[in-house]
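@channel sequence for tomorrow's demo:
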Amino acid sequence: MDGRVQDIIAFLERDTLRNLVLLKTLAQFPRAVRCVFRSDPDGEAALLLLPGSVSGFDRAHYPSVDHVVFLAVSRLDQIPRLLAEVPAGSRLLFKLMDERHPAAVDPVFAIRRVAGYHSFAPPAGRRFEIGSNVTVSARLAGDLLAVYTAQGHAPEEVRHHFACGARSVTVYEGGRPASTCFVYPNYGRIWEIGALTTSPERRRRGLARAVVSAAYGVLGREGLTARYQAHESNPASIRLAESLGLQRFLVNSHWVHAGRQP
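structure tokens (generated this afternoon):
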């Protein structure tokens, strides 16, 4: 990894939740990501450039992308200078954490929005219940692995998370998982709630709400923060977050550039 990495991390950790995707990218792919850092008396700016073939998620969802671009800036006028470091003529995926950034990128690289992921976290001091019908386990049961795999998580990925301390949070009915998710370390003391799903015949009974509430309850007792993320095409998941009093703190929007300048 090149660039002033420690300076970049210090800059990003001033707002860890907002910069969580960038920090995790640095931690997960330290040898693959290229870093650019600019600093002046008025603020800092960072660019991360990751080959599109490195991340399993990106390979699956954006197989034709050459590079994934991440930005974090103190001021919008820093963006054009950072973008000068991005290879011209490449097929790019921009993952942007600020709603103002697309307008600053588009004059340099014409981009088209393709997806958005809403991130939620609880307000300070919010407490969550762990219902008596919820089972929390650090052991990865075979039936749950099958459920999480069906949600798009590779089996080796799930096993790795559990080896690093992940826990399943599940409501069982008739000896089978009716609703479940798992929580796992993301970056530092921030954890992720992933693979939330409820059996179709058991939906609209508040089971998913009980599972997510329990997940936050478990992590809250340990002084950990959890991020809940929902794709913009899943309004039910967004409504669930809002019903629990979670606060949306960013939308991670994905934008593609086809390799031609405007």
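heads up for whoever presents: The CA atoms of residues 85 and 235 lie 37 Å apart.
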